[in-house]
Design the sequence.
């Protein structure tokens, strides 16, 4: 059967022994950590990202790194909500201010040299 499926005999026996032994301690810890990460994420109304969940886990007594928490969140497809970046407002239009008259009626190219001159304050 191993030859038909193009598997090595030793690979099959290794897989069979792993199945009989049950989950490894790493897999068990990862499952427990995933459950705690999901619980803390849900408790934060799905707002917290890995740094805040890490702080909650450490407060709860877990010894874990931020990268482990981030990997757990990726496995579970969980994402924190980041605020939008702050953008400064550089121009505030004054509706009551008088605007200068448009003497060229937005016609910049009249076909003749030195007829229309413009400038830019920047």
Sequence:
């Amino acid at each position: 059967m191993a030859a038909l499926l193009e598997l090595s005999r030793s690979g099959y026996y290794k897989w069979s022994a792993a199945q009989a032994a049950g989950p490894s301690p790493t897999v068990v810890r990862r499952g427990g950590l995933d459950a705690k990460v999901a619980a803390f994420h849900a408790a934060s109304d799905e707002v917290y990202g890995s740094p805040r969940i890490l702080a909650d886990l450490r407060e709860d007594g877990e010894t874990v790194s931020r990268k482990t928490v981030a990997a757990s969140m990726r496995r579970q497809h969980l994402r924190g909500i980041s605020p939008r970046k702050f953008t400064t407002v550089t121009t505030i239009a004054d509706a009551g201010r008088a605007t200068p008259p448009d003497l060229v009626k937005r016609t910049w190219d009249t076909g003749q040299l030195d007829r229309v001159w413009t400038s830019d304050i920047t």
Q: What stands out?
A: The chain has a mean pLDDT of 88. Residues 9-75 form one domain.
